[in-house]
Amino acid sequence: MALKLETSLPISIFSKYKEPFKTQEVVEDSFRKNEDLIFISATGIAVRSIAPFLKNKEQDPAVLVIDDQGRFVISLCSGHLGGANDLARTIARKIGAIPVITTATDGRGYEGLDLYAKKMNFSYDSIHDLTPLTGAMVDDKKIFLYNPYKYQEPNYPNFTKKMDSKIDYSLAITDEDKLNLPGYSVYLRPKTLHLGLGCKKGADYQALKFLIEDVFKKLNLSLASIKDMASIDIKKDEEAFKKLSEDLNIDFFCFRPEELSLLEDRVQGSSFVKKTVGVSSVSATAALKLGGELIIEKEVYEGFTLSLSREV
Asked: Is residue 305 within 8 Å of residue 200, measured between CB atoms?
């Protein structure tokens, strides 16, 4: 069975018939490297082998079990985020077996919210926040769906777009921060926002942090929807920008003046800035270079300029 899988999958085989090895060491190494594991064994052997290394569904690799006769392919661990369910179906098709999928949403033909968020590259506060909504889906409850940008929706038949205070659950797919939604609410955050930044040399990070939080509060936008940030190349070593990129876990791009100058005609610029750095506006053109349309052309505070564009 292992050799049969080896011909169609890029896998490493460990077998007591092939060479001596210690199961726990192999399993520990696979968990550390986040490599999928396929046990051709009794389920109990697999459970006992992985038990010491399990952390949570966001970190654990996919774990599958196949019986030695190749009748069943069991998705044992990390069915959604780890991809075990899909891998079980793929392998079952290859060897003519029955995939055993026990996650409740899959059994009903619904799309798990964690899997949907991963597919769409949406963020959320905590995996545990999704649990009550997943339970509502399993119970076929009506869920209010707020989706102003009309993203592809999760596969679930009982969403409603009609606001009703009697509804106990809501799902919002938006970059807006706080909304008055009925019942228990979950927010999925699309990455729609681009930050364009400029600053005086050595400007204080706390001032930048205050500026961003103030702008986002005024616009009722979520920081979790920031996709990336950019400035001009001479600012690539600014500590405040590097720290912001790290704290928000977003990419920081730096563009040459000639790249930004191509967008000058779309914003208000300064001849002084043009003379100093080669482009009449840094933050606004940097935001536009990242994508979308400006929703804030320029906010200034304590040596920083901030621009914000939205792409949906």
From this structure: no
